[in-house]
Each structure stands twice: as structure tokens, then as C-alpha cells.
Amino acid sequence: MAKVAASSCLLSCLLVLFLSSVSAVTDEDKQVYIVYMGSLSSGADYTPTSNHMSILQEVTGESSIEGRLVRSYKRSFNGFAARLTGSERERVANMDGVVSVFPNKMLQLQTTSSWDFMGLKEGKRTKRNPTVESDTIIGVIDSGITPESQSFSDEGFGPPPKKWKGVCSGGENFTCNNKLIGARDYTSEGTRDTEGHGTHTASTAAGNAVVDTSFFGIGNGTARGGVPASRIAAYKVCTETGCSSDALLSAFDDAIADGVDLITISIGDKSAPMFERDPIAIGAFHARAKGILTVNSGGNSGPDPTSVSSVAPWILTVAASTTNRGFVTKVVLGNGKTLVGKSVNAFDMKGKKYPLVYGKSAASSNCDAAAAGLCQEACLDESRVNGKILVCGGPGGLKIAESVGASGLIFKTPKPDVAFIHPLPASGLQAEDFESLVTYLESTDSPQATVLKTVAIFNRTSPVSASFSSRGPNIIAADILKPDITAPGVEILAAFSPDGLLSEHDTRHVKYSVMSGTSMSCPHVAGVAAYVKTFNPKWSPSMIQSAIMTTAWPVNATGTGIASTEFAYGAGHVDPIAAVNPGLVYELNKEDLIGFLCGMNYTTSVLKVLSGEAVNCSEAKAILPRNLNYPSMSAKLAGNDTTFTVTFNRTLTNVGTPNSKYTSKVVAGHGSELSVKVTPSVLSFKAVNEKQSFMVTVTGNDVNSELPSSANLIWSDGIHNVRSPIVIYIYDEY
Fold first, then answer.
1. Keywords on this record (predicted)?
2. What distance in Å separates the CA atoms of residue 247 and residue 284, rounded to the nearest whole number?
């Protein structure tokens, strides 16, 4: 009997253990999903919670759904959150009335700003020097500014710094304050921003911290600039038709005399002009001579080589890259499949699925199917598109979608790394997802879809160069690496002008908007430069530029060949905290820059245009361009140089601690291997501000014309790591 009892116990215990394990696995398989059902039903007898419970009972087969239903959404929109298994989730997703089903995520309180991403945290979480920051004046040369914006409120500000010599000439109904201390107009329109661009850049650099900002709920959080306690002076040089050279030069002229501490200018040409024909280069040279750093956007013509438009070594040139946040807009097809695209879509289709129409299936008699498939102008029959979601093989549909009566737009995007605002529900798909959409279209009798509202995702671990960001090499000074640095320039939320239009066809008016471009990355670096200056107020522009470049993070770039190298991001991604204390800096003065220009064989007349004074190169000390004391090192080889030796001469200034010793280290980069010798390999500094010189000798062979060879020279004392990229390249297409 004992054995039987034991056997019975064993069997019953095993059965209990088995059932427990099954139960445990089932509980483990369940997770909370959000079931979004769009807008609330208008039916008088419709009760959302009862409907949600019925759905759960049907899907789970359980009469009691206690512990399953987490919450019901029943006031502003329809849906619920519930604990479901994977198979139950699939069944719910295929039910009528269900728009989408997605996992619940544990989110954190967030800021709209990219400053957190760079380590410059909000409030007391970042060390600041408030007195000096409040005395710092940033000159913004752009399309004007919106004085009423909360980003420029002067609440808590004292009077302008005593050094300020500017005026408030903003025009009619324009008032400055103790935050926005100056305004000048060079367009005859008044300094008020009617484009939105200048307001956006100014707030990115130095706007106040403004809580609960968003673009129609997208990216909600606190918008702020890098130095929110600093002052702003706005110089309007741009209208909807462009920015004239004469206005630019006038703005530089005034800004320098007004007493700004640095200038941010998110303006540029389509390609790099000669220095003497470049109003920004000319104005910036004069600013540099007066101790004012100019930070300039590198351009948005990437990833084409030689597209960077700001190439003078006396300008800090900024490329654009991503942050850890991105905006995505999902497309839910009639078969339940979800495609993830890019746009900033604030329109809510409330889950309603609309008929899809491919452009080539709606071709007008004016065009063939191929042109209609791209949704080129005048190529679509409005009667076939009206009330439907238009599908286009390219972004051309953005220009015509509304005019042909489309309810929404899904297109194949050429820029899958960036989201833009559009005047109707829209999503840009990458090639693979677009082909999946086309397959669905061609295999379904009545294809349908809905475009969901944009959501923010946080899944990037390191910055990547934006595809649109202009690339080097430098077509004017081949041995100066440009751009210098990269910073956040993708999907940046900042202040906007309520008077501005979001696009040509978008009549919505907002106070905060999302924009992308090197125009957005430029004021980030201007804010960092101002932040560095608040801790080092006596530093020259070259010292600030060096500190920013030599403390940058390494980054990756999109594209291949030249587009994926240092010609995309320069020294790397700006690091505000490290830049305050770089240890060593590369210094430049006006005489060095004139020597550089003489080394480029500029004539006396051209030098006078740039420097504003007579210069005789026979008397000045000419400097080989690659030997300018620049924080990066670059050399262009002749196409027939299969074996080469290149030298760079540099001098470092100690801004760290006395009695410090720095040891050199070389880390390989892109392309064929370089042999790099540093002489001397160790630098010892007895005092602060002491200078030590060294020479870098680079030898190698067979540099690939499609991929430059690079390395990184790092000087380290165990605390500071002073990094300079070394780039050797061949490029014969300019």
C-alpha cells in the first residue's frame, strides 16, 4: 500500500507540477498590448467598456476576463489595454474595428531637445556658470525672430550686459526685452520672422526652457536651447526669396560692432564659392579678427562629394546627424500588415481605412504609366484619385496629392533617415516596404490602408550622419578638412513662427515645429560654443573651436566611399561637457590665417577683400595650407602618387594643469593602412598656456580614390584625450 500511495502521490504531484508549469509559461507568454480602435462610435447604445470585454471574451474563450483587461479608453478615442498571448494578439488585430495592436512600453519623462542626448541635461543636472552665461550674447543671422515666443521671454532676466551696443530696430509691432536684446532688419520687412527658420535656430541655440511643447502632440516635452540664460540679438537677412549678400555683410558688420560674443548663421550657397566672393567667409574673417567665433551650417546637398559649402578655416562648419530619437509613421494595410515609414504626421485618420490607388493605375492621358507611377505633375486623373490614399514611387506626389483630391499619401522615400512634415496624412517607405505595399496592391481586389499618427521611438544608440548633410572634400582649400564637426540636425523640435507656413501647401500655424537640416545642427554647436565660453571667457575663437573638435565622439556615416568617412562628420560628434575641459588646444590668430592665404597664393587685392587691410605676402610668413595649426590634418595627393610621405606641423597649448605629460597614440581609421610617426611622441608642459610643437609624418601607398585613408592622433595624459583626425585622399573630380 505504501508503494501504491507513493505512486499515487508521485503521479498527482507530477500532474500538479505539470499544470503549474503550463500556467507559468502561459502567464509568461502574456504581455500588455494596446488595442487601438480609432474614434468612438456615435451610436447611442454603444458602450466602449462592454464592447472591449466582449472582444476579450471572444478572443480568449474565457467567460471571466478578470486580470486581462488593464484599462479602457473611452473618452477621447476608442481602445483598450489587455494582457494577451501572441496568438491572441494576432486574432485581435484581424478583427473588424481594430486599427492596430502594439506592445505597451515603459516610457520615461522626456525632453524634446537633443541637448539631453549630447549630455547637456536640463536644470541643475548640468554644471553651469549662470553669471557669465547671462552676459553671453549670441548673434543670430537668419530670417528674423518671433519676439512673443515663450522661448524668448525675459522673465527672470536682468538688464542687458553693459558691453551691448546694439539697438532694437525690429519694425512695426516688434518689441525687444531683456532676453531678446537686439533686432535689426535688412529686408525692409521688419525683423519679425515670417518663415519660421530664424525662430527655430535662435531657440535651438539659446531659447528658454519651455515645458509641454510639441507639434500637435508629437515629441511632447521641454524645448530649450544650449545656453538658456544667454541673450539673443536677431539680424534678419532672409525673406522667402532668399538671403542677399549685401544684407549678410551688413548683418556681420553690425553684429561685430554691437558686441555679440559669437555668431550662428544657418545660411549657405549651393556650392563653396571662392573666399573673396563669399559674404559669409568675408564677414566671419572680420568677426574672427575681433574675437568672435562664427558657426555655419555645412549645407544640405549630401551625400554628394564636395558638396559642403562652408570651407574657410576661420569658420566652424557643422554637419548634421541623428539623435537617439526618431519619428515613425505606420501604415496599416487592409490585410492587417503594418509597414513602418517616415514622416511627421499629426493628422488622425481615426483608424478609418481608405481605398488605395497606385499612381500608375490612375494615369491621365498626358503621361505614361511610369511617369504616373512617380506621381509627376499633370500625370494623374483626379477622378481616379479623389478620396483615396495615393501611392507613389517617389516623393513627387507631395506636390500634387491635395490638388487631385487624395485623402492621404504613401510614397517611396529617397531619404529614409529623416521625417518631414506634409500637408496631409503621409508616410515615406523604404524600398523593401514599398515593394511589399505594391505586392499587396497588385494582389488585392480592393486594397485599403490607414496612415497612423506619428510616434517617437528611441532605438538609436549612436549618432549617424544624415544622408542630406553635405560632404567634403574641400574644393577651395583641399588640405583643410571640412565639415569640422557634426551635431543633431534630424527631426529637431524648436520654436517656430505662427506667421510662417509649414510648407507651400500647408496652411497650419504653430508655435513649435519639427525641422531637419544642417540649419538645425549649426545652432546646436553655437550653443555648445557659448557654453564652453561661459567657463573659459578669455578663450579665443580658435581655442573654442579646437576644444569642440578635439573632444568629439566618433560617429558613423550613411552611404559608401567618401560619403561615409570624415568628409561626412569631420572630427566627430560634438560633446559639450568634454569640450569645456579639453586639456590642450590648437591656437590660430589673424597672422596665421593671412599666412595660410598667402600659402594659397592669394593676391594682394584678394587678401585686402578678406582682411580689410593691405597685405604683402612677400613680407608675411606664408604657411603651407596643411601646416595651418588646425585641429584636424588633411592632405590631398596627386592622382599618380602611389607611394607618399606627408608631414604636418602643429603646436599645442596647455589649458589643463601644470606639470602635465601627454603621450601620443595613433588609431587606424578608414582605407589603406597609414604609417604615422609623431615627433616628439611625448609632450611635457610645466605651465598653463605653455606651447609645445610636434611633427606628424605620414607614409603609405596605394590610396584608393574611392575611399580616403585615415587615422586618429590622440594625445592623452590619462584624463584628457585630445583627438585629431588625419585624412589622406585622392580626388580628381574638381
1. Hydrolase, Protease, Serine protease, Signal
2. 14
